[in-house]
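Final report, section 2: Outcomes. Of the targets proposed, Helix-turn-helix protein is the one most frequently requested by collaborating groups, and we therefore present its record in full.
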Amino acid sequence: MPSSDRSEFGEYLRRRRAAMSPPGPRGGVRTSRRRVPGLRRQEVSDIAGISVEYYTRLEQGRAPRPSREILTSLAQALGLSDAERDHLFRLGGEPPPEPASPATVIRPGLLRLLRGLDDTMPVTVHDGRLDLLARNKAAEELLGGLTGGGRFERNIAFQAFTTDVLARLLGDEGAERFLRTAAAELRMALSRYPGDAYLRALLAELAATSQSFREHWEEGEVSASRSAVKRMRHPAHGWARFEIEVLHDPERDHWIMLYTPQGDE
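The predicted structure is given below as C-alpha cells.
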C-alpha cells in the first residue's frame, strides 16, 4: 500500500545511499578522504539526473511527492533490486511498476515440490500469459499430453478453444464453464501486459479461427480463478472430484494449481 510518510521515504534514501560503494580513486590515488560511508548526495543526484538541491529535500522529507519517473531514476541510481525498488515506490506514494512479462524460469524449490507430490495430487504451474510451464506426473496422468502444435501449444486458452481435450476431461457442461473462464483470464492477462506481442498474436489467432472464442470474448468478462471444485474424468480411474486451489507467485507471475482429490464418483 502506498505511503504518504515523507520522513520514512527520506530515511530509506539515506540508508540505501550509505550502503553503496563509493567510486574508486582516479588513477589509483585517492585525493580526499570520506568521513561518511557510501555515496555523497551529489553523486547520487548526478547518477539519477536530478539536482542535488531537490535530492537533498527528498532525503529531508521536504519535497513534494516524487513522480514515477523520478522514483525509477532513484531506484536505478541506488542499484536497488526489484523488491527494494517496489518498496521505494510505495514509500514514495506510488504503486510499484508492473513487470514487463512473466518470468520464464520456475523456482527450483517449486519444481522439487511438484515432484514430491507425484503420488499425492496433480500439480501444474502456468504463467501470467496462461502458458503451461510445468506439471508433475500425477497431472500428466490426469490431463493427458498436449495436443496440436505450433507457437501456442502450451497455452491453456489456446488448448481450450482449439482442441477436444475439454469435453473428454470435463464433460460438456464443465467444458463450457472452462471456456468462459479461459476467455476471461486471457482478457485479464492482456490487461496486465497490454503491449505483449505474444498475447496479441494469440488473441488474433483465436479470433480468426474459433467461433466459440469470439462468442465468449464478446461477453467482456475478466477473472482470475483462485479456487473451484471440478468433476474430472481420469483416464484410468473414471470420474472423480477435485478441489482446486490456485497459489500465486507475484514476483514471477507464476500460478500454481493444486488438484486435491475428493474421491471417485
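The chain has eleven helices and five strands.
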